[in-house]
Amino acid sequence: MDLKALKDTPPWDWPAGTAEKLVNVLRDEQAIESDRLLATEMAGDFTVVNDELVEALLAILRNSQESKQVRARAAISLGPILEYADTEGFDDAGDAPISKRTLQGIQESLHQLYRDADIPKEVRRRILEASVRAPLEWHENAVRSAYSSGDHLWKLTAVFCMRFLRGFDEQIVEELDNKNPDIHLEAALAAGSWGVEAAWPHIAALIHSRRTPKPLLLAAIGAVPSIRPQEASEVLSRLIESDDEDIVEAVHEALAMAEAPSDEDDDDEDGRRVK
Q1: What's the pTM value of the predicted model, to 2 decimals?
Q2: Which of 108, 134, 160 corresponds to the end of one domain?
Q3: Which of 18, 147, 154, 184 has a CA-to-CA distance to 117 between 20 and 30 Å?
Q4: For 86-128, what is each residue's pLDDT tens digit?
Q5: How far, in Å, CA of 202 to CA of 173, rounded?
């Protein structure tokens, strides 16, 4: 089974036995680095992820002899399944790719690893970015610490995390003016995630400007229905005629979301987003 060929194949077309193949590569410390990076990336896909693959990813994260690139990729791959398990829950255990016990094991392991200052910064950043997708009490202080660290990479991680944690509206608005394009983009995405009203003038300006980079424009379009859905049609009308298919698709999605019933009440008692 050629991992590179699989990577170019849609996950739903991956053959039977793919999960087992990935586990074997993840556990084989003698496998070449490129294969291990591919395996860690593919292991997080919903078509294959299971308890055994999760444990293999965690074993890589715990292993100080692994390269920081492989460890960081392992952390990233845990993010989507954490978010899925956190939002969908385990009411129908038959539909859950992992067990509740495995979810708790991921969360406990990532918290413990994050507190280890000897772990490379890149790996700790990815651990925080993954773990926050199923928010716990410790995340707020971790994100505030990363934000105020004075390190632009940690700030980038912090602003990314603000997509998943309520209570950072002031910081999100502040970072919309950040000259670092990556932080600017994450701030726009976070503003849309929480419908930050104070971000509206900036979001509208990004949409009206013809010089806005495409990724940032797509983020701004996506933010419209959560901030001012009643103005979506007016604000986005110019872009509906764009020659760029991605932009047109994003506009249609935003308009559909703007017309959908409000889900402002769909927050749990801890103030976290739910779907």
Answers
A1: 0.90
A2: 134
A3: 184
A4: 888 877 766 788 999 999 999 999 999 999 999 999 999 999 9
A5: 9
Using one digit for the tens of pLDDT, what is the confidence trace for 152-168?
Answer: 999 999 999 999 999 99
- Are 201 and 244 part of one and the same domain? yes
Question: In this structure, which amino acid lies at residue 7?
Answer: K
The total of other beta-carbon atoms located within 10 Å of residue 213's CB is 13
Residue holding tokens 């929480």? 194
Per the CB < 8 A criterion, the answer to whether 156 and 183 are in contact is yes
Residues 120 and 49 in one domain: yes
The residue from 134, 166, 194 where one domain ends is 134
**201 contact partners, CB below 8 Å, separation of at least 6:** none
Domain that holds residue 210: 151-275
Q: Is the confidence at residue 251, as pLDDT, over 50?
A: yes
